[in-house]
Amino acid sequence: MTQVPEKSVDAINRNDHRFAVAPMMDWTDRHCRWFHRLLVPEALLFTEMVTSGAILHGDRARLLDFDPAEHPVVLQLGGAEPEAVAEAVRLAEPWGYDGYNLNCGCPSDRVQRGRFGAGLMREPERVRDVLAAMRSATAREVSVKCRIGVDDCEDEPFLERFVATCARSGVDTFIVHARKAWLAGLSPKENREKPPLRYDVVARLKQRHPELRIVLNGGLAGPDAVRAAMARVDGVMVGRAAYHDPGALPALVAAAHGRPAPVVDDGRVLAALAAYVEARRAEGVPAAAVLRHVLGLFRGRPGSRCWRRVLSERMREPDAGAALLHDAAGALAPARPEPSGRAGRGHATA
Ligand SMILES: Cc1cc2nc3c(=O)[nH]c(=O)nc-3n(C[C@H](O)[C@H](O)[C@H](O)COP(=O)(O)O)c2cc1C
Q1: What is the Å distance from ligand 1's center to 323 Cα?
Q2: Number of the ligand 1 atom closest to the C-alpha atom of 238
Q3: Exposed, middle or buried: residue 9 (CB in 10 Å: 0-12, 13-18, 19+)?
Q4: Is any atom of ligand 1 closer than 6 Å to the C-beta of 48?
């Protein structure tokens, strides 16, 4: 557990939101985040959503522990009761998260029953009060993640009212998944695919609110898309593309920062991964808990299918560890210079 230095509530830190990896339940756990951090030192990372109730009543060490290497990392909370969410923030403070984010974008049944997530967009005054309570509980940055609309509330005045009301809490960072959520009728997965992406709506929100930091999320998958988004908003958040193709992360982050894509040193990444897997095994964490997140690492490279297959077939064996990584990497072809359009996916083998 990392201790945070004392800070006045006025001295709110501002995280760099130019590039973030999205919060994803069951995916962006601490091992996944550690792995992403290995690839991209500057990206802002988010936890999976944790409900305020889980923090108040559950196993806090299991829910909140993370590796100091993961910084900067934001804890995403789900909740609708100002006092409960604020108390969850207070309880999480000793862990030293770099910020807290309120989930107003998740459409799952479980979340709807608990009256939080995307449904909260219909109650902007409540969200404002939750955010204000969170801010009073921490000097760390508080932000919101939302959709552009919910069900038939999808016109721009609806989004405008939500954002303007929430901003009265003093929160100035809005991460907007650029599609609405259909709470009745669509599964969470469909809700990430079916409602059309409306980047124009998010761009206009930024134009109306130059004073707010607006981060665009949804469907961003390559450096060109990231560069185009950065011309319209303050930052991007990438979810599925980052998870399924983590080797692309350095090029995506570089695009968000307006830099040329770096060359990734496979040897360094593999050695660090092997050491991490062994360190976790020594604590009783099975190798698969880490390795399930790295299956897509070499996506698009010759041998990547073999890498994935070797890991998938053997990572649950009791002795799976560093040697398995070595075997799986043996299937990969040596790195070749990439054609110019895909600069940054070049990997250098140490
Ligand atoms: C498996 C999975 C789990 C998710 N869990 C969360 C979550 O806990 N909190 C949240 O705000 N969004 C969650 N999301 C939504 C993502 O954060 C993101 O908004 C969405 O996937 C769109 O971004 P993308 O097109 O870059 O993936 C999840 C998405 C996926 C695929």
Answers
A1: 33
A2: 26
A3: exposed
A4: yes
Active-site residues, by number, are 106
Whether residue 117 has its Cβ less than 6 Å from ligand 1? no
Above 60 in pLDDT, residue 2? no
DSSP H helical ranges for the chain = 30-39, 52-57, 60-64, 82-92, 109-113, 124-137, 156-167, 199-208, 223-230, 240-244, 249-256, 266-282, 287-291, 304-314, 322-329
Q: Which amino acid is at 179?
A: R
219 C-beta closer than 6 A to ligand 1: yes
Q: Is ligand 1 within 6 A of the CB of residue 311?
A: no
Asked if pLDDT for residue 9 goes beyond 70, the answer is: no
CA of 239 to the centre of ligand 1 (A): 6
Residues of the chain with CATH 1.20.120.1460: 264-337
In this predicted model, what pLDDT tens digit does every residue of 297-322 receive, in sequence order?
Answer: 999 999 999 999 999 999 999 999 99
Q: Is 49 in the pocket of ligand 1 (CB under 6 A)?
A: yes
Residue whose CA lies nearest to ligand 1 atom number 18: 239
Domain over 19-256 is classified CATH 3.20.20.70: yes
264-337 placed in CATH 1.20.120.1460: yes
Q: Are strands 44-46 and 235-238 parallel, antiparallel or unpaired?
A: unpaired
Each residue's pLDDT tens digit, 110-163: 666 667 788 899 999 999 999 999 999 999 999 999 999 998 887 899 999 999
Query: d(Cα 162, Cα 166) in Å, to the nearest integer?
Result: 6
